[in-house]
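Q: Study each token:
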Amino acid sequence: MKSRYLKQELFIGKTGQKKIEESTIVVFGMGALGSAISEMLVRAGVGKLVIADRDYVEWSNLQRQQLYTEDDAKKKLPKAVAAKQRLQSINSQTIIKEHVMDIYFQNVEELAEGASILMDATDNFETRLVINDAAMKHNIPFVFGACVGSYGMTYPVLPGKGPCFHCLVDYIPSQNVTCDTEGVISPIVQWVASMQVAQAMQILSGEDVTSTLRSFDIWKMEHAEMNVEKLKNLDCPCCGIERLHPFLTMEKQTKADILCGRDAVHIRPPVPRTLDLKYLSKQWEQQTTNMLANAHLLSFQYEPYRVILFKDGRAIIHGTADITMAKNVYTRLTG
């Protein structure tokens, strides 16, 4: 039987294909970009795929997050779990390891261990800076990607060759505008993901990849490129002379993020903990409504709040953008 990757081999060669099949790629975030990136990678024959995401599937995701179905949204499946099920049905030969977790300084290095490339599919600068530090510390290529509205951009971070992501923060458009406030159309998601995967395949197959920041507005058909090699900062704390990797050494603290545009707060405990979801479902059954439970999370309506409790101790409190209020609700429900 002919190789399932024959058409790809004709283009990149057998040696390039072999390198892809021997690679381990980590995708941080399984939303719109992560869905598209991961599907392309497993279809390309990547040997091992590690995926990590903190969220669950909602109806509003289905417009652009191509791996998920209405059934996933009904069940409120964690994106990493739903993604693995679909991806494994696409390519059973790829080893897929899913993680339902927030990505931060205490777990990023473990996720990145043994990786050939790190793929950015997150939606905030803080997480990208954490991943960038891990990439610089362990000398792993990191492919940045972002999109909002009809506009997207990509940049390959190549350790030892060009500026890292931190060097370019002042040259990348503000993240005050997000897809939660301005919307996003799926064609730009596909463009950004395609650029990221193409760059990853070039890196794996030994092609020369330049330190070029690329942007494209797929609605206006406007395209721009900037060679940023000269922007490398020798005093950069991530890739400069001292290489301090500050984003991997933050003080432990309870972390709460307002989820932009969703009237919700994401909470992560100061240290990892495991919630007994079965016990909590029984404890709060009489005081809540619309309860839904699966092996990974517990969802219910509590007073004016829609609460999602994750097995790993995290929570999303819908119905407020007040961090203090959300923390109080979390403490009340979990002890």
About this structure: The radius of gyration is 20 Å. The chain has a mean pLDDT of 90. Residues 186-204 form the longest helix (19 residues). The chain is about 30% helix and 25% strand.
